[in-house]
Design goal:
alpha+beta; six-stranded mixed beta barrel; Putative ABC transport system permease protein; Lipoprotein-release_system; transmembrane; membrane; transmembrane helix
């Protein structure tokens, strides 16, 4: 075993009460910080991650009806903040009078909300097309259909006091999970949505001709719009407001929670930095005090021929041992405490623990501990090198 390591360990064993007190002080600082970090990562970060992963929280809703032309949609598609956009009709036309499933048994669901979709829709794992639709999970459950099934959509109107209906055969391309869209809805293509609007608005369009191809309108009353990320929501909203387009986020609290997380991150970093600086100063002073108490011993070691590197290594090894013991004991207390917290309190979401420490966070704590040990030992190392060999002779 190298001589500096033997000397450092023997000194710690000789002054074990001071060493134990110092390790306990480190545990008193590090353990609460790790538990706070686990709670922040598990509770707050998990909630924000769920918000980020849920596309509905990135949606901006148009307030009122407008007149948005093709140039407007080209401008939106070119914006870096935009993740998805598709023109939409007036909300009064976004409702089917009924949807009928004929197999395996006849089921009728009335007043079904219609949602226009297109390629790249963040809620869908596939695409819609003319006659191909996606259903939300609640609607699919009510109808008793699965992907590959067939439906009949019924659209009604009243002209001169007479009720008229048009029908459209639909193929179910997929089902949107309830976690993505929890309300009954039918997702269909823009051509199908425009056909519904023409049938309801134009008396010249008959139940027999309503599905015939027609030129798109010069302007659309509304749109479906999603920001690329949750952080882009505010900027995109501001850009649209600047163009006179009134919008509001579907999830009013999403941006607020992001701000809360940023604030919590800054607060935690500030507290952790203060704790680290305070402990670093205490560590440096403690090691410097050890050197001062053993000045004659270090003077004798110099007289006996120990090299400067060997003598300076002694406080460095002591620093690493103390920090390592404190970190190890802290983890031995914190990890069971985190498990106890998770067992005692409900999770913030399915599969998400209330308290959680990631491996990279534990690795970061270990690296920070080593850096603290190395830098805190510098003062003591310099002091060791300045102790003259003749000092032991002067003090007999």
């Amino acid at each position: 075993m190298p001589l500096p390591l033997v000397l450092a360990l023997r000194e710690l064993r000789h002054d074990w009460i001071s060493a134990l007190c110092f390790v306990a002080a480190l545990v008193g600082v590090l353990a609460p910080m790790l538990i706070l970090l686990a709670l922040k990562t598990g509770a707050l970060d998990s909630m924000v991650e769920r918000l980020v992963d849920d596309p509905a929280n990135r949606e901006l809703l148009a307030v009122g009806a407008g007149a948005h032309d093709e140039a407007f949609f080209r401008w939106l598609e070119a914006r870096p903040e935009v993740g998805f956009v598709v023109p939409a009709t007036r909300s009064i036309n976004a409702l089917a009078d009924a949807v009928v499933a004929a197999s395996p048994r006849r089921v009728v669901v009335r007043e079904v909300p219609l949602v226009v979709s297109a390629a790249g829709d963040p809620l869908l794992a596939g695409e819609v097309g003319p006659g191909r639709v996606w259903l939300s999970a609640p609607l699919a459950k009510s109808l008793g259909v699965a992907p590959g099934g067939e439906l009949t959509m019924v659209i009604g109107r009243r002209i001169d006091g007479l009720e008229q209906t048009a029908r459209r055969r639909l193929e179910v391309a997929g089902v949107v999970p309830a976690g993505r869209y929890g309300r009954p809805a039918l997702f269909l293509s823009l051509p199908d949505m425009l056909a519904i609007e023409r049938f309801r608005d134009d008396p010249a369009v008959t139940p027999e001709s309503w599905l015939e191809a027609a030129a798109p309108p010069a302007a659309f009353a509304s749109f479906r719009l999603y920001a690329r990320t949750l952080a882009d929501l505010g900027a995109l909203s501001a850009v649209l407001e600047g163009r006179g387009v009134a919008v509001r986020p579907r999830a009013e609290n999403a941006a607020v929670l992001l701000q809360v997380r940023r604030g919590a991150d800054r607060l935690y970093l500030a507290v952790a930095a203060l704790a680290a600086v305070g402990f670093w100063a205490a560590m440096a002073a403690n090691l410097r005090g050890m050197v001062e108490r053993r000045r004659l011993a270090f003077s004798l070691l110099r007289m006996l021929g120990l090299t400067p590197a060997q003598r300076a290594t002694v406080p460095l090894i002591q620093s690493l041992v103390l920090i390592g013991a404190g970190l190890g004991l802290s983890l031995a207390l914190v990890l069971p405490a985190v498990a106890l917290i998770n067992a005692s309190f409900p999770a913030v979401a399915e599969g998400a623990a209330l308290a959680r420490l990631r491996p990279d966070q534990l690795g970061g704590a270990a690296v920070l501990a080593c850096v603290t040990a190395l830098t805190a030992a510098l003062w003591a190392m310099v002091a060791v090198l300045r102790i003259p060999s003749e000092e032991v002779l002067r003090h007999g």
